[in-house]
Amino acid sequence: MRLGSMHFGVNYTPSRGWLHHWLDFDPDEVRADLDSIAALGLDHIRVFPLWPVFQPNRTLVRPRAVEQLAAVVDAAAERGLDVGVDGLQGHLSSFDFLPSWTTTWHRRNIFTDPDVVRAQAHYLSVLAAALADRPNFLGMTVGNEINQFSGAPHPDPDRIDAGQAGRWLRRMLAACEEAAPGRMHLHASYDAAWYDGTHPFTPAHSARLGAATAVHSWVFNGTAQRYGPHGAATERHAAYLVELSKAWAEDASRPVWLQEVGAPAPHIPPGRAAAFTEATVRNVLDCPDVWGVTWWCSHDVDRSLADFPELEYGLGLLTNDRRVKPAGEAMALLVREFRQGGLPSPEPRRTALAVDAGDVWEAPFRSVCRPGGAVFEAWMRIASAGGRPAVVLEQHADDAGHLAARGITEVLRAEQVP
């Protein structure tokens, strides 16, 4: 398990059957997929057990499913790939995967119902314990953007407040740590956590709970629509999220994992996917304390599978018959350049933009950070002019110790940026 260097990886979407492959598990197909991933020079994958498949009953975690997960981790090890495992899937590519014991006649809040929470913690601990002795096991992510179940625009949300979200996250992370001590256990939210002041999962949850901060950068969130596929803000959105996340971190050197980023068509036209990939990754590599970049996703979704949003079918670095696409070639070239020392380590960012989002834990005014918001616009103006802005909370803007720990020598407010 490599924790001390820059990491390049991919979210593993199997070429045959997408993530439904757990229902027809074929180790030979998995090995072939992993061969095609390793050939790009990548060093890790992120894998997604489907929660209803692995825990179909509240008191049953299927041993055979856990064995298959371990087989994927072992096959990855044979190819020099580390593995991060997401537990509660949860939500993937517009589909919800909730077990039947949480829905309809058994409908209950997945964040607050005591029986559900106890079962979730048990499930995560079973997966983590099964992998704890594998050297290439990175750790557990609690779930993939499971925060989307907690509010709009979900059609049937499990309503909670920020305090309840924090208690749930701490319980899940503790279960992972107890089962596999010392691994990189964390959680992942989609960007409402950073941009929506009414959302119960907050920036502080992401930046202060768990072993690292995960950010998911998707420019179909209004960024590409507002600034265009060639726009500087579109190509810098991922780097902006990385730097924004650091404003809420208590540890000045806390690692940030760009855990999802992709080139969604038509927001990024297919002919521009390679250029967008290169620009996005280069901008992120200029941010200090980045643990790694994990592209979404490995293989395209097979067109024989129905009802995915159109943009989901073509996000892979490889086709679903394992041919490398232009974005995959761009990623492979960047990895090679980095490994050969062609991309230097980033210097500290001396100028910081202050953000006043209100209370540190609830951040009710965080909408100033979203695309089109005052902080977002000011950060992009500085970056587009050749600057390298960081972000600091208004609460820390005059804290000499905090600023020194991050190497910040100048703090600006949005209204000071012409």
UniProtKB/TrEMBL annotation:
SUPFAM superfamilies per record: (Trans)glycosidases
Do you know which InterPro entries this protein is assigned to?
Answer: GH
Protein name as catalogued: Endo-1,4-beta-mannosidase
Q: Which organism is it from?
A: Streptomyces olivoverticillatus
